[in-house]
Amino acid sequence: METPLLQTKLYIPVTRPDPAAGLRTSFIPRLRLIDRLNQGLAGKLTLISAPAGFGKTTLVSHWLEQVNLTVAWLSLDQDDNDLARFLRYMIAALQTIQPAVGTEVLALLQSSPLPPSQTLLTLLINDLTAVTDKSLLVLDDYHLLDTATIDQALTFFIDHLPPTLHLVLTSRADPNLPLARLRANRQLSELRSADLRFTPTETAQFLAQMTDLNLAPAEVAALDRRTEGWIAGLQMAALSLGQRETEAVAQFIEAFSGSHHYIMDYLVDEVLHQQPVELQTFLLYTSILDRLCGPLCEAILRGTEPLDNGRDITPAPTMPDASGAQEILAYLEHANLFITPLDNQRRWYRYHPLFADLLRHRLQQTYPAQVARLHLSASQWYEQAGLIDSAVQHALAAQVFSRAAALVEQVASAMIQRSELTRLLTWLDLFPAEVVETQPLLGLYYCWGLFLSGQ
What's the topology of domain 29-196? Predict the structure, then answer.
């Protein structure tokens, strides 16, 4: 069974609000950083490396709105740790620039064993030499990949890039690439947290746009000092300030300090408590999703099928109206609640990763019995949509192993054929041993995957 590619991974996130919707904007022109990015085009690689919440993806998206270049975008996730899958998605992104790129490589990716990565990349690079216009390839969230074979393949790719293609990586940590050599050869441009954090002037502009409060310069300076220009913390602070009386502002500013995670956790609690209970539930429940659309959110909010592992299901006290999920997503964007549209039609969205992590933690604390049911409903929706990869992930997260096994058996043979062994073995490692032992096909695929991967 051929697994379809998830097209939303190829969408450039939409970071400006829709003017027609009258949304409050938090956009701050960052011309000094745009200039740095433009200057970096003279080399091969631009690396934007900083922890969560520093606006890496937002900055690149804003830059791409201004630069007069064709762009291929790929949002990476942990499932891309297979070299074959990574190359398949990277070629899909590049084909948005030149549809003929990588067709021979895609055919070879169906073979088993996989040809050497340098053979595949040589063919791809040769195809890219036919692209005459200056182009960009953006790999967003590269820190989610931790496979040496991909690092080695990307090193070869960078070393032999045609002059018309420039690579941009965003990452929470420095990748295992020859950065020192690229830096010494003036082929590397870098932006780091010290560059990305807001200046005091940018902090003042941001808070003025995000709140209706007339903050005193000393209050702005205190917020800037306590957050150290950390954009995610400032956005959460602005959301909380917007719900307070003027006389309570100074007390609020003095109330938080410490690490980024501590500040964010505190502010998430503050912001959640200012929302209607139904909206709080929506945020918590949908936080299990990497990408959100109205029908998917409706499916998990409506899901009532009991689990096959006998767990007790305790319903949330107040549920939002599932039929209005798309409108709720639009409202969350309107309210600047850490959600980014993934397409111009504003059908698909994603939460800021740091916000989603904290919401998931809060969900586990508040409604632990609901977590598995939500994942099960998401798995059912994805299966009906033909997106078996995501269906497997959510079935495993729900620990409904009978369902996960049936789904894996649908795609395992094709994954082995495509040499996506790392991902298959990662899935199978999540099954309890007794499940694999009682599922002959799973055991067969597990042994075959281990054999082909040299284990």
Answer: Rossmann fold (3.40.50)
